[in-house]
Design goal:
- This protein is of the alpha+beta class and about 170 residues long.
- Helix content is about 45%, strand content about 10%.
- It has 5 helices and 4 strands.
- The strands form 2 sheets. It has a two-stranded antiparallel sheet. It has a two-stranded antiparallel sheet with strand order 3-4.
- Helix 1 crosses helix 2 and helix 3 crosses helix 4.
- The protein is elongated, with a radius of gyration of 26 Å.
């Protein structure tokens, strides 16, 4: 297997005070890594699962799932619930359908939680903004502080951020 050169660059996104340039200096990492796993065709992936003790009820459906969703997302993400950690063999009676059902349940649960969290976030923002903007004693500097802007940005408050309701 060929060596692959890896370069990772991490840097904060630009902030209004930097004139559009990224903030801070970048953190860089580079090095040589080996690809740990080689690509397997869908039939080979199913054979690998079968050789580890997993029952595949419908080969066609399993092949479609592996093509649509991905082996590593479905199998690696949820196999630990069905595998004996000491032997790395699937427990008796474990099926690909069981792993897929758990994966689908997890996706649905994440969608429900995300929807609920977005609604809570919107209400919190509305409440905080309402409290801050309705109180005449709260100045623009406090508003910036509450919004998470650094203290040195207080010079921005020379101009009004927005008009408060009368």
């Amino acid at each position: 297997m060929d060596n692959i050169i890896t370069m990772i660059r991490v840097q904060k996104l630009s902030m209004p005070g930097t004139g559009g340039e990224p903030a801070g200096s970048p953190f860089c990492f580079s090095g040589r890594t080996r690809m740990p796993k080689e690509f397997l065709a869908y039939q080979q992936q199913m054979e690998k699962l079968r050789s580890s003790g997993l029952t595949i009820e419908d080969k066609g459906a399993c092949c479609r799932v592996l093509a649509d969703i991905d082996y590593f997302l479905v199998v690696n993400g949820y196999q630990s619930f069905f595998r004996d950690p000491s032997t790395r063999v699937y427990r008796e009676g474990a099926t690909f359908g069981d792993i897929l059902a758990l994966c689908e349940f997890d996706v649905e649960l994440r969608e429900i939680m995300l929807d609920a969290l977005l609604k809570v976030e919107a209400k919190l923002v509305k409440c905080v903004n309402g409290c801050l903007l309705s109180d005449e004693s709260v100045g623009d500097e406090r508003l910036l502080e509450a919004m998470g802007f650094p203290a040195e940005w207080k010079k921005i408050t020379r101009c009004k951020i927005w008009d408060r309701p009368a």
